Amino acid sequence: MNIKNTQAFGAESPVAPLKELTIQRRETTATDVEIDILFCGVCHSDLHTVRNDWGGTKYTTVPGHEIVGKVISVGEKVSKFKIGDLVGVGCIVDSCRECASCKQDLEQYCIPGFTGTYNGTDKHLGGHTFGGYSERVVVDEHFVLSVPENLDLAAVAPILCAGVTTWSPLKHWNVKEGSKVAVVGLGGLGHMAIKLAKALGAHVTLFSRTPDKEKDALELGADQVIISTEDAQMAKVKGTFDLIIDTVPYVHDVNHYIPTLTISGTIVLVGYLGPLDPMLNTVPMILGRKSVAGSVIGGIAETQELLDFCGKHRITSEIELIKMQDINEAFERMLKSDVKYRFVIDMASLKKG
Fold this sequence. Notes:
With 353 residues, this protein is α/β, with parallel strands linked by helices. It is built from eleven helices and 17 strands. The strands form four sheets. Strands 3, 4, 5, 8, 9, 16 and 17 form a seven-stranded mixed beta sheet that branches. A six-stranded parallel beta sheet has the order 12-11-10-13-14-15.
């Protein structure tokens, strides 16, 4: 298979800073789309992977799975895209396409396991996949998404991960006009959850530990803010919410929020991976038929549905645009939650050297 050298930014070990390097991409096969990357969002998963926080990182690693760009070539069997199209690539660049999950357009739950945009198994070149902190990428057309032309392209990038991570549970739990939705945590995921739930017609509440998030939450579309450390405020919303989207990325007490669910309500965890501490108390769950669930990213079809919805409602992420050369500083700021609400890399900075 023919290969092409590509400039990228990556890390060679868990303690090494990201730096410019050269990687190899395949030339387009019959069903491939080659994309000139214009913008790439910066996800917490990028940081965790680079520093091997979850284990299993394959080095050299090139992160980035919130990719927006323009088609520059297509394989002879490609039917969905043409040169010049604005497109996106999210967290998935391949799956088995044959298991029960894939046949339901739920590639994120592919039973043998999907191929991640980075740190996945590269079945074409061997080794592992490289992500969007690079000049270009080659992806099978099935996993490429159409981007609405009426949106700010840089601000579209986080929709491909942060956006669909909150959209998928909103759709699965049938949020609609009049639904009562709460969001825990106001960051990259939380701010998208507020925007999307509001656009679906829900009454939206933010749970915050401190009052300093109230102004921002209301500007994003929340109807109210409940200070979760205030017992009186929590009592006021007891038995209220059909769905709570919990975006907090670290261990915390989920039991605190369960009494605020209505009968048959669900709290869905999209931010934290790992054991809960303290453990779940099942009493309020059993007595109210309440559920604690989890959800991860989204399938290709629902990601396209989300992009179309965002185009119709003119929804994008709130971003801070950075140069590729500033990524190490951006990682340090992410650790301090010093961004509103998502960094996006202008990939022209890499191409200029």
